[in-house]
Design goal:
- This protein is an alpha/beta fold.
- The protein has helices spanning about 30-40, 40-50, 85-100, 120-135, 165-190, 200-215, 225-230, 235-240, 295-310, 355-365, 380-385, 400-410, 445-455, 485-495; strands at about 1-5, 20-25, 25-30, 60-65, 70-80, 105-110, 155-160, 215-220, 245-255, 265-275, 315-325, 335, 345, 370-375, 390-395, 415, 435, 460-465, 470, 480.
- The chain folds into two domains: about 1-165, Leucine Aminopeptidase, subunit E, domain 1 (3-Layer(aba) Sandwich), CATH 3.40.220; about 180-495, Aminopeptidase.
- Strand 2 and strand 3 form a beta hairpin.
- The structure holds ligand BES, manganese (II) ion (MN) and zinc ion (ZN).
Length: about 500
Protein backbone atom coordinates (compact mmCIF):
# COMPACT_ATOMS: atom_id res chain seq x y z
CA UNK A 1 0.00 0.00 0.00
CA UNK A 2 1.21 3.45 -0.91
CA UNK A 3 0.62 6.36 1.49
CA UNK A 4 1.08 10.08 1.07
CA UNK A 5 -0.10 13.37 2.60
CA UNK A 6 -1.57 16.38 0.90
CA UNK A 7 -3.13 19.63 1.95
CA UNK A 8 -5.95 20.71 -0.33
CA UNK A 9 -9.67 21.23 -0.62
CA UNK A 10 -12.02 18.40 -1.49
CA UNK A 11 -13.56 19.90 -4.59
CA UNK A 12 -10.16 20.06 -6.29
CA UNK A 13 -9.37 16.36 -5.83
CA UNK A 14 -9.60 14.17 -8.91
CA UNK A 15 -9.54 10.72 -7.34
CA UNK A 16 -11.38 7.39 -7.49
CA UNK A 17 -12.88 8.22 -4.11
CA UNK A 18 -12.83 10.93 -1.50
CA UNK A 19 -13.65 10.11 2.10
CA UNK A 20 -15.32 12.68 4.34
CA UNK A 21 -16.83 12.59 7.83
CA UNK A 22 -20.43 13.16 8.93
CA UNK A 23 -21.26 13.99 12.53
CA UNK A 24 -24.27 12.84 14.49
CA UNK A 25 -27.05 13.88 14.01
CA UNK A 26 -26.77 14.20 10.22
CA UNK A 27 -24.28 17.07 10.29
CA UNK A 28 -21.58 17.57 7.73
CA UNK A 29 -17.98 18.19 8.73
CA UNK A 30 -16.45 21.45 7.40
CA UNK A 31 -14.93 19.48 4.51
CA UNK A 32 -18.33 17.93 3.82
CA UNK A 33 -19.87 21.42 3.78
CA UNK A 34 -17.45 22.47 1.04
CA UNK A 35 -18.44 19.49 -1.08
CA UNK A 36 -22.09 20.13 -0.38
CA UNK A 37 -21.80 23.67 -1.63
CA UNK A 38 -20.30 22.79 -4.96
CA UNK A 39 -22.76 19.94 -5.39
CA UNK A 40 -25.55 22.44 -4.72
CA UNK A 41 -26.95 20.72 -1.68
CA UNK A 42 -26.86 17.18 -3.07
CA UNK A 43 -25.25 15.73 0.06
CA UNK A 44 -27.23 17.68 2.65
CA UNK A 45 -30.39 16.59 0.86
CA UNK A 46 -29.46 12.97 1.31
CA UNK A 47 -28.77 13.54 5.00
CA UNK A 48 -32.09 15.32 5.44
CA UNK A 49 -33.84 12.30 3.98
CA UNK A 50 -32.22 10.20 6.70
CA UNK A 51 -29.80 8.14 4.63
CA UNK A 52 -26.98 8.55 7.15
CA UNK A 53 -27.34 9.41 10.81
CA UNK A 54 -23.59 9.88 11.41
CA UNK A 55 -23.15 7.16 14.01
CA UNK A 56 -19.50 6.07 14.31
CA UNK A 57 -18.62 3.64 11.54
CA UNK A 58 -21.78 4.13 9.41
CA UNK A 59 -20.96 4.56 5.74
CA UNK A 60 -22.68 5.75 2.58
CA UNK A 61 -21.05 5.43 -0.82
CA UNK A 62 -22.12 7.98 -3.46
CA UNK A 63 -21.35 7.93 -7.17
CA UNK A 64 -21.16 10.91 -9.53
CA UNK A 65 -21.98 13.64 -7.04
CA UNK A 66 -22.82 16.75 -9.14
CA UNK A 67 -19.81 19.01 -9.90
CA UNK A 68 -17.42 16.84 -7.86
CA UNK A 69 -14.34 15.75 -9.82
CA UNK A 70 -13.82 12.49 -7.95
CA UNK A 71 -15.74 9.43 -9.11
CA UNK A 72 -17.01 8.51 -5.66
CA UNK A 73 -17.65 10.15 -2.32
CA UNK A 74 -17.62 7.95 0.76
CA UNK A 75 -19.41 9.49 3.73
CA UNK A 76 -18.30 8.04 7.07
CA UNK A 77 -20.14 8.52 10.36
CA UNK A 78 -17.92 10.03 13.08
CA UNK A 79 -20.40 10.22 15.98
CA UNK A 80 -20.90 13.40 17.99
CA UNK A 81 -18.54 16.23 17.16
CA UNK A 82 -15.81 16.64 19.83
CA UNK A 83 -16.55 13.21 21.29
CA UNK A 84 -14.41 11.25 18.86
CA UNK A 85 -11.81 9.30 20.86
CA UNK A 86 -8.89 7.01 19.99
CA UNK A 87 -10.96 3.87 19.83
CA UNK A 88 -13.69 5.36 17.62
CA UNK A 89 -11.13 6.99 15.35
CA UNK A 90 -9.44 3.64 14.73
CA UNK A 91 -12.88 2.08 14.19
CA UNK A 92 -13.88 4.61 11.53
CA UNK A 93 -10.53 4.21 9.76
CA UNK A 94 -10.97 0.39 9.73
CA UNK A 95 -14.50 0.73 8.45
CA UNK A 96 -13.32 3.10 5.73
CA UNK A 97 -10.56 0.76 4.57
CA UNK A 98 -12.83 -2.28 4.52
CA UNK A 99 -15.50 -0.37 2.59
CA UNK A 100 -13.00 1.03 0.09
CA UNK A 101 -11.62 -2.45 -0.45
CA UNK A 102 -15.08 -3.65 -1.49
CA UNK A 103 -15.67 -0.84 -3.96
CA UNK A 104 -13.68 -0.83 -7.19
CA UNK A 105 -11.70 2.22 -6.06
CA UNK A 106 -7.98 1.52 -6.14
CA UNK A 107 -7.04 4.90 -4.69
CA UNK A 108 -8.64 7.36 -2.31
CA UNK A 109 -8.15 10.76 -0.71
CA UNK A 110 -9.11 10.61 2.95
CA UNK A 111 -10.15 13.71 4.92
CA UNK A 112 -10.82 11.84 8.18
CA UNK A 113 -7.31 12.78 9.38
CA UNK A 114 -8.67 16.33 9.69
CA UNK A 115 -11.37 15.23 12.10
CA UNK A 116 -10.98 16.43 15.68
CA UNK A 117 -9.85 13.53 17.92
CA UNK A 118 -9.76 14.25 21.65
CA UNK A 119 -6.22 15.17 22.76
CA UNK A 120 -4.54 14.06 19.52
CA UNK A 121 -2.59 16.00 16.88
CA UNK A 122 -2.02 15.56 13.16
CA UNK A 123 1.07 13.39 13.69
CA UNK A 124 -0.93 10.94 15.78
CA UNK A 125 -3.93 10.87 13.45
CA UNK A 126 -1.87 10.19 10.34
CA UNK A 127 0.37 7.61 12.03
CA UNK A 128 -2.60 5.74 13.51
CA UNK A 129 -4.38 5.84 10.14
CA UNK A 130 -1.35 4.17 8.52
CA UNK A 131 -1.00 1.57 11.27
CA UNK A 132 -4.74 0.81 11.33
CA UNK A 133 -4.89 0.51 7.53
CA UNK A 134 -2.03 -1.98 7.45
CA UNK A 135 -3.57 -3.93 10.32
CA UNK A 136 -6.92 -4.08 8.50
CA UNK A 137 -5.36 -5.36 5.31
CA UNK A 138 -3.29 -8.02 7.08
CA UNK A 139 -4.00 -11.64 6.20
CA UNK A 140 -2.11 -14.82 6.98
CA UNK A 141 -2.92 -17.09 4.06
CA UNK A 142 0.50 -18.40 3.10
CA UNK A 143 -0.56 -21.86 4.14
CA UNK A 144 -3.91 -21.94 2.34
CA UNK A 145 -3.79 -23.88 -0.91
CA UNK A 146 -6.18 -21.40 -2.58
CA UNK A 147 -5.80 -17.72 -1.86
CA UNK A 148 -8.67 -15.27 -2.25
CA UNK A 149 -7.60 -11.67 -2.76
CA UNK A 150 -9.94 -8.77 -3.57
CA UNK A 151 -10.35 -8.27 -7.31
CA UNK A 152 -9.32 -4.63 -7.37
CA UNK A 153 -7.55 -3.96 -4.09
CA UNK A 154 -6.95 -0.50 -2.69
CA UNK A 155 -3.43 0.52 -3.73
CA UNK A 156 -2.95 4.12 -2.77
CA UNK A 157 -4.31 6.37 -0.07
CA UNK A 158 -3.72 10.08 0.45
CA UNK A 159 -4.34 11.58 3.89
CA UNK A 160 -5.26 15.20 3.97
CA UNK A 161 -3.78 17.54 6.60
CA UNK A 162 -5.32 20.93 7.44
CA UNK A 163 -2.36 23.18 6.53
CA UNK A 164 0.69 23.03 4.27
CA UNK A 165 2.79 23.63 7.37
CA UNK A 166 1.79 20.19 8.62
CA UNK A 167 2.95 18.32 5.53
CA UNK A 168 6.38 17.47 6.94
CA UNK A 169 4.81 16.27 10.18
CA UNK A 170 2.42 14.16 8.12
CA UNK A 171 5.30 12.68 6.15
CA UNK A 172 7.21 11.75 9.28
CA UNK A 173 4.01 10.23 10.69
CA UNK A 174 3.71 8.05 7.57
CA UNK A 175 7.33 6.97 7.84
CA UNK A 176 6.99 6.04 11.52
CA UNK A 177 3.59 4.43 10.94
CA UNK A 178 4.97 2.27 8.14
CA UNK A 179 7.96 1.15 10.22
CA UNK A 180 5.73 0.22 13.17
CA UNK A 181 3.25 -1.54 10.87
CA UNK A 182 6.07 -3.47 9.27
CA UNK A 183 7.39 -4.60 12.67
CA UNK A 184 3.85 -5.52 13.74
CA UNK A 185 3.41 -7.53 10.53
CA UNK A 186 6.59 -9.49 11.19
CA UNK A 187 5.38 -10.07 14.76
CA UNK A 188 2.03 -11.39 13.48
CA UNK A 189 3.56 -13.55 10.75
CA UNK A 190 5.98 -15.25 13.12
CA UNK A 191 3.34 -15.68 15.82
CA UNK A 192 0.66 -17.07 13.49
CA UNK A 193 3.08 -19.58 11.95
CA UNK A 194 2.12 -23.08 13.19
CA UNK A 195 4.36 -24.82 15.72
CA UNK A 196 5.36 -27.62 13.35
CA UNK A 197 7.10 -24.93 11.29
CA UNK A 198 7.82 -22.22 13.86
CA UNK A 199 10.18 -23.98 16.28
CA UNK A 200 13.13 -22.43 18.17
CA UNK A 201 15.40 -22.92 15.14
CA UNK A 202 12.87 -21.10 12.93
CA UNK A 203 12.97 -18.12 15.29
CA UNK A 204 16.74 -18.13 14.81
CA UNK A 205 16.34 -18.14 11.04
CA UNK A 206 13.95 -15.19 11.21
CA UNK A 207 16.51 -13.32 13.31
CA UNK A 208 19.23 -14.15 10.79
CA UNK A 209 17.18 -12.71 7.97
CA UNK A 210 17.13 -9.34 9.78
CA UNK A 211 20.91 -9.55 9.85
CA UNK A 212 20.96 -10.07 6.08
CA UNK A 213 18.60 -7.17 5.48
CA UNK A 214 20.04 -4.47 7.78
CA UNK A 215 23.68 -3.38 8.03
CA UNK A 216 23.31 -2.36 11.65
CA UNK A 217 21.99 -5.75 12.73
CA UNK A 218 24.13 -8.71 13.78
CA UNK A 219 22.79 -11.96 15.17
CA UNK A 220 24.22 -14.85 17.09
CA UNK A 221 22.45 -18.04 18.02
CA UNK A 222 23.04 -19.81 21.31
CA UNK A 223 22.27 -23.55 21.13
CA UNK A 224 21.97 -26.20 23.85
CA UNK A 225 25.69 -26.94 23.96
CA UNK A 226 26.60 -23.34 24.75
CA UNK A 227 23.72 -23.06 27.24
CA UNK A 228 25.14 -26.11 28.99
CA UNK A 229 28.55 -24.41 29.24
CA UNK A 230 26.93 -21.24 30.60
CA UNK A 231 25.02 -23.20 33.25
CA UNK A 232 21.55 -22.33 31.94
CA UNK A 233 20.08 -25.48 33.45
CA UNK A 234 16.65 -24.03 34.11
CA UNK A 235 16.13 -22.98 30.46
CA UNK A 236 17.53 -26.31 29.26
CA UNK A 237 15.25 -28.32 31.58
CA UNK A 238 12.12 -26.85 29.98
CA UNK A 239 13.22 -27.85 26.47
CA UNK A 240 14.43 -31.33 27.40
CA UNK A 241 11.17 -33.14 26.62
CA UNK A 242 11.12 -31.78 23.08
CA UNK A 243 12.82 -33.16 19.99
CA UNK A 244 13.32 -29.56 18.86
CA UNK A 245 16.54 -28.07 20.18
CA UNK A 246 16.28 -24.93 22.35
CA UNK A 247 17.78 -21.92 20.58
CA UNK A 248 18.28 -18.47 22.04
CA UNK A 249 18.61 -15.83 19.30
CA UNK A 250 20.52 -12.67 20.19
CA UNK A 251 19.90 -9.74 17.83
CA UNK A 252 22.18 -6.72 18.12
CA UNK A 253 21.04 -3.43 16.62
CA UNK A 254 23.89 -0.92 16.70
CA UNK A 255 22.42 2.45 15.81
CA UNK A 256 23.98 4.49 18.61
CA UNK A 257 27.51 5.41 19.63
CA UNK A 258 29.72 2.41 20.13
CA UNK A 259 30.08 2.47 23.91
CA UNK A 260 26.50 3.46 24.80
CA UNK A 261 24.92 0.89 27.14
CA UNK A 262 22.20 -1.02 25.29
CA UNK A 263 18.51 -1.33 26.02
CA UNK A 264 17.76 -5.06 26.10
CA UNK A 265 14.46 -6.70 25.15
CA UNK A 266 13.93 -10.33 26.13
CA UNK A 267 11.01 -12.27 24.61
CA UNK A 268 9.52 -15.52 25.87
CA UNK A 269 9.72 -17.81 22.86
CA UNK A 270 7.81 -20.99 23.76
CA UNK A 271 7.02 -22.12 20.22
CA UNK A 272 4.58 -24.53 21.82
CA UNK A 273 3.57 -24.89 25.45
CA UNK A 274 1.79 -28.21 26.04
CA UNK A 275 2.29 -27.73 29.77
CA UNK A 276 4.81 -30.61 29.79
CA UNK A 277 4.20 -33.37 32.36
CA UNK A 278 1.69 -31.02 34.06
CA UNK A 279 -0.11 -31.19 30.72
CA UNK A 280 -2.77 -28.67 29.77
CA UNK A 281 -6.38 -29.61 28.97
CA UNK A 282 -7.03 -30.26 25.25
CA UNK A 283 -9.48 -27.47 24.58
CA UNK A 284 -7.81 -24.50 22.93
CA UNK A 285 -4.38 -26.04 23.31
CA UNK A 286 -3.56 -25.08 19.71
CA UNK A 287 -3.41 -21.48 20.90
CA UNK A 288 -0.30 -22.30 22.87
CA UNK A 289 1.56 -21.89 19.57
CA UNK A 290 1.25 -18.20 20.53
CA UNK A 291 3.35 -18.76 23.64
CA UNK A 292 6.23 -17.30 21.63
CA UNK A 293 4.33 -14.00 21.36
CA UNK A 294 6.97 -12.24 23.48
CA UNK A 295 9.74 -13.30 21.09
CA UNK A 296 7.55 -12.27 18.14
CA UNK A 297 7.04 -8.85 19.75
CA UNK A 298 10.78 -8.47 20.24
CA UNK A 299 11.76 -9.43 16.68
CA UNK A 300 9.00 -7.16 15.35
CA UNK A 301 10.26 -4.25 17.43
CA UNK A 302 13.83 -4.88 16.22
CA UNK A 303 12.54 -4.65 12.66
CA UNK A 304 10.68 -1.38 13.33
CA UNK A 305 13.67 0.35 14.87
CA UNK A 306 16.01 -0.90 12.14
CA UNK A 307 13.66 0.47 9.49
CA UNK A 308 13.53 3.79 11.33
CA UNK A 309 17.28 3.76 11.73
CA UNK A 310 17.00 4.93 15.36
CA UNK A 311 20.25 6.32 16.82
CA UNK A 312 20.43 3.92 19.80
CA UNK A 313 21.78 0.50 20.74
CA UNK A 314 19.24 -2.24 21.35
CA UNK A 315 19.67 -5.97 21.89
CA UNK A 316 16.73 -8.30 21.31
CA UNK A 317 16.79 -11.80 22.77
CA UNK A 318 14.37 -14.47 21.54
CA UNK A 319 14.28 -17.20 24.19
CA UNK A 320 13.19 -20.06 21.92
CA UNK A 321 12.10 -23.34 23.50
CA UNK A 322 9.37 -26.00 23.31
CA UNK A 323 7.63 -27.44 26.39
CA UNK A 324 6.67 -31.08 25.78
CA UNK A 325 6.08 -34.19 27.87
CA UNK A 326 8.41 -37.14 27.19
CA UNK A 327 10.59 -39.66 28.96
CA UNK A 328 13.36 -37.10 29.08
CA UNK A 329 11.12 -34.21 30.16
CA UNK A 330 11.61 -32.34 33.42
CA UNK A 331 9.09 -33.16 36.12
CA UNK A 332 7.28 -31.71 39.11
CA UNK A 333 9.60 -32.20 42.08
CA UNK A 334 12.80 -31.58 40.12
CA UNK A 335 15.17 -29.02 41.61
CA UNK A 336 17.03 -26.94 39.01
CA UNK A 337 20.13 -24.81 39.37
CA UNK A 338 19.71 -21.60 37.40
CA UNK A 339 22.53 -19.71 35.67
CA UNK A 340 22.49 -17.28 38.61
CA UNK A 341 23.25 -20.13 41.02
CA UNK A 342 19.86 -19.85 42.72
CA UNK A 343 17.92 -23.12 42.92
CA UNK A 344 14.26 -23.68 41.99
CA UNK A 345 11.89 -26.44 42.98
CA UNK A 346 9.58 -27.24 40.07
CA UNK A 347 6.02 -27.66 41.34
CA UNK A 348 4.32 -27.39 37.97
CA UNK A 349 6.00 -27.88 34.59
CA UNK A 350 3.41 -25.55 33.06
CA UNK A 351 4.96 -22.58 34.87
CA UNK A 352 7.82 -22.91 32.35
CA UNK A 353 8.07 -19.36 30.98
CA UNK A 354 9.72 -18.01 34.11
CA UNK A 355 12.21 -20.91 34.07
CA UNK A 356 13.31 -20.01 30.55
CA UNK A 357 13.27 -16.26 31.14
CA UNK A 358 15.22 -16.35 34.40
CA UNK A 359 18.31 -17.73 32.65
CA UNK A 360 17.91 -15.39 29.67
CA UNK A 361 17.69 -12.49 32.16
CA UNK A 362 20.92 -13.61 33.82
CA UNK A 363 22.57 -14.08 30.42
CA UNK A 364 21.93 -10.42 29.46
CA UNK A 365 23.80 -9.12 32.54
CA UNK A 366 26.93 -9.55 30.42
CA UNK A 367 25.79 -6.71 28.14
CA UNK A 368 25.91 -4.25 31.03
CA UNK A 369 22.47 -3.00 30.03
CA UNK A 370 21.01 0.45 30.56
CA UNK A 371 17.54 -1.11 30.83
CA UNK A 372 16.04 -4.57 30.40
CA UNK A 373 12.43 -5.20 29.39
CA UNK A 374 11.08 -8.72 29.12
CA UNK A 375 7.94 -9.54 27.17
CA UNK A 376 6.00 -12.73 27.80
CA UNK A 377 2.69 -14.52 27.49
CA UNK A 378 3.42 -15.50 31.05
CA UNK A 379 0.20 -16.02 33.00
CA UNK A 380 -3.43 -16.88 32.36
CA UNK A 381 -4.04 -14.80 35.50
CA UNK A 382 -3.18 -11.66 33.55
CA UNK A 383 -6.15 -12.31 31.25
CA UNK A 384 -8.37 -12.60 34.33
CA UNK A 385 -7.01 -9.32 35.72
CA UNK A 386 -6.88 -7.11 32.62
CA UNK A 387 -8.65 -8.94 29.79
CA UNK A 388 -7.56 -8.25 26.25
CA UNK A 389 -7.23 -4.47 26.54
CA UNK A 390 -4.14 -3.82 28.62
CA UNK A 391 -0.77 -5.48 28.88
CA UNK A 392 0.29 -6.16 32.48
CA UNK A 393 3.40 -4.25 33.54
CA UNK A 394 5.60 -4.66 36.61
CA UNK A 395 8.91 -2.99 37.26
CA UNK A 396 11.70 -2.53 39.81
CA UNK A 397 12.34 1.05 38.60
CA UNK A 398 9.60 3.70 38.72
CA UNK A 399 10.89 6.02 35.98
CA UNK A 400 10.99 3.06 33.58
CA UNK A 401 7.45 2.04 34.54
CA UNK A 402 6.34 5.60 33.91
CA UNK A 403 8.05 5.73 30.49
CA UNK A 404 6.41 2.49 29.39
CA UNK A 405 2.93 3.58 30.51
CA UNK A 406 3.44 6.82 28.61
CA UNK A 407 4.63 5.02 25.46
CA UNK A 408 1.50 2.88 25.72
CA UNK A 409 -0.76 5.95 25.87
CA UNK A 410 1.04 7.63 22.98
CA UNK A 411 0.93 4.60 20.71
CA UNK A 412 -2.55 3.42 21.66
CA UNK A 413 -1.07 0.09 22.81
CA UNK A 414 -1.58 0.41 26.53
CA UNK A 415 -0.22 -1.24 29.66
CA UNK A 416 -1.36 -1.15 33.28
CA UNK A 417 0.94 -1.45 36.26
CA UNK A 418 0.60 -4.08 38.99
CA UNK A 419 2.55 -3.96 42.26
CA UNK A 420 5.77 -5.83 42.81
CA UNK A 421 5.75 -5.67 46.60
CA UNK A 422 7.92 -7.85 48.81
CA UNK A 423 4.74 -9.12 50.50
CA UNK A 424 4.07 -11.46 47.59
CA UNK A 425 7.42 -13.25 47.65
CA UNK A 426 6.48 -15.69 50.43
CA UNK A 427 4.07 -17.41 48.05
CA UNK A 428 7.18 -18.82 46.37
CA UNK A 429 8.75 -20.29 49.53
CA UNK A 430 10.12 -23.82 49.18
CA UNK A 431 11.16 -26.27 51.90
CA UNK A 432 13.84 -27.78 49.64
CA UNK A 433 15.21 -25.13 47.26
CA UNK A 434 15.70 -21.36 47.28
CA UNK A 435 12.13 -20.97 45.99
CA UNK A 436 9.49 -22.72 43.87
CA UNK A 437 8.23 -21.88 40.40
CA UNK A 438 4.61 -21.74 41.56
CA UNK A 439 2.88 -19.02 43.56
CA UNK A 440 -0.63 -20.49 43.89
CA UNK A 441 -3.91 -19.12 42.60
CA UNK A 442 -3.80 -15.68 44.22
CA UNK A 443 -2.10 -12.87 42.27
CA UNK A 444 -0.62 -15.21 39.65
CA UNK A 445 0.73 -12.42 37.45
CA UNK A 446 2.45 -10.75 40.38
CA UNK A 447 4.05 -13.88 41.80
CA UNK A 448 5.37 -14.77 38.33
CA UNK A 449 6.96 -11.30 38.13
CA UNK A 450 8.30 -11.72 41.69
CA UNK A 451 10.01 -14.88 40.51
CA UNK A 452 11.65 -12.98 37.64
CA UNK A 453 12.64 -10.10 39.90
CA UNK A 454 14.99 -12.46 41.76
CA UNK A 455 17.08 -12.49 38.58
CA UNK A 456 16.98 -8.80 37.66
CA UNK A 457 18.56 -7.13 40.68
CA UNK A 458 21.55 -5.81 38.75
CA UNK A 459 19.69 -3.50 36.37
CA UNK A 460 16.58 -1.41 35.77
CA UNK A 461 13.94 -3.83 34.62
CA UNK A 462 10.32 -4.05 33.55
CA UNK A 463 8.20 -7.06 32.75
CA UNK A 464 5.34 -7.00 30.24
CA UNK A 465 2.75 -9.78 30.55
CA UNK A 466 1.06 -9.94 27.15
CA UNK A 467 -1.03 -13.10 27.76
CA UNK A 468 -4.23 -11.17 27.08
CA UNK A 469 -3.03 -8.83 24.34
CA UNK A 470 -0.75 -10.83 22.00
CA UNK A 471 -3.51 -12.66 20.14
CA UNK A 472 -7.26 -12.89 19.67
CA UNK A 473 -8.79 -16.25 20.61
CA UNK A 474 -11.18 -18.53 18.78
CA UNK A 475 -13.51 -17.92 15.87
CA UNK A 476 -12.95 -16.12 12.61
CA UNK A 477 -11.05 -13.25 14.15
CA UNK A 478 -8.39 -15.47 15.68
CA UNK A 479 -4.83 -14.33 15.17
CA UNK A 480 -1.83 -12.42 16.46
CA UNK A 481 -2.40 -8.70 17.14
CA UNK A 482 1.14 -7.39 16.66
CA UNK A 483 1.19 -6.08 20.23
CA UNK A 484 3.30 -4.85 21.99
CA UNK A 485 5.34 -3.70 18.96
CA UNK A 486 3.75 -0.20 18.91
CA UNK A 487 4.35 0.39 22.63
CA UNK A 488 7.94 -0.85 22.60
CA UNK A 489 8.82 1.01 19.41
CA UNK A 490 7.32 4.18 20.88
CA UNK A 491 9.36 3.70 24.04
CA UNK A 492 12.51 3.38 21.92
CA UNK A 493 11.60 6.38 19.74
CA UNK A 494 11.28 8.38 22.97
CA UNK A 495 14.55 7.03 24.35
CA UNK A 496 16.32 7.89 21.09
CA UNK A 497 15.00 11.45 21.36
CA UNK A 498 13.64 11.35 17.82
CA UNK A 499 11.20 14.16 17.09
CA UNK A 500 7.83 13.87 15.39
CA UNK A 501 8.76 16.87 13.30
CA UNK A 502 12.02 16.46 11.38
CA UNK A 503 12.30 20.27 11.10
CA UNK A 504 12.56 20.73 14.88
N1 LIG B 1 1.83 -19.73 28.54
C1 LIG B 1 1.08 -19.95 29.73
C2 LIG B 1 0.22 -18.74 30.12
C3 LIG B 1 -0.97 -18.49 29.26
C4 LIG B 1 -2.07 -19.30 29.35
C5 LIG B 1 -0.99 -17.42 28.43
C6 LIG B 1 -3.18 -19.04 28.56
C7 LIG B 1 -2.09 -17.14 27.65
C8 LIG B 1 -3.19 -17.96 27.72
C9 LIG B 1 2.03 -20.23 30.88
O1 LIG B 1 3.16 -20.95 30.55
C10 LIG B 1 1.26 -21.03 31.86
O2 LIG B 1 0.93 -22.14 31.56
N2 LIG B 1 1.01 -20.44 33.00
C11 LIG B 1 0.28 -21.07 34.02
C12 LIG B 1 1.01 -20.78 35.29
C13 LIG B 1 0.59 -21.60 36.46
C14 LIG B 1 0.91 -23.07 36.23
C15 LIG B 1 1.31 -21.06 37.66
C16 LIG B 1 -1.11 -20.47 34.07
O3 LIG B 1 -1.27 -19.28 33.79
O4 LIG B 1 -2.06 -21.22 34.31
MN1 LIG C 1 2.85 -23.03 30.63
ZN1 LIG D 1 3.82 -20.80 28.65
Amino acid sequence: MEFSVKSGSPEKQRSACIVVGVYEPRRLSPIGEQLDQISEGYISNLLRRGDLEGKPGQTLLLHHVPNVLSERVLLVGCGKERELDDKQYKQIISKTINTLNETGAMEAVCFLTEQHVKGRDTYWKVRQAVETTQDCLYTFNELKSKKSDPRRPLRKIVFNVPTRRELTIGESAIEHGLAIASGAKLCKDVANMPPNICNPRYLGEQAKSLETEFDKVTVNLVGEKEMEELGMHSYLAVGRGSANESVMSVIHYNGGVEDAAPIVLVGKGLTFDSGGISIKPGEGMDEMKYDMGGAAGVIGTMRSIAEMNLPINVIGVLAGCENMPGSNAYRPGDILTTMSGQTVEVLNTDAEGRLVLCDALTYVEAFDPDTVIDVATLTGACIIALGAHATGMLSNHNPLAHDLLKAGEQSGDRAWQLPLWDDYHEQLDSPFADFTNLGGRAAGTITAACFLSKFTKKYNWAHLDIAGTAWRSGGKNKGATGRPVPMLTQYLINRAGVSENPQD
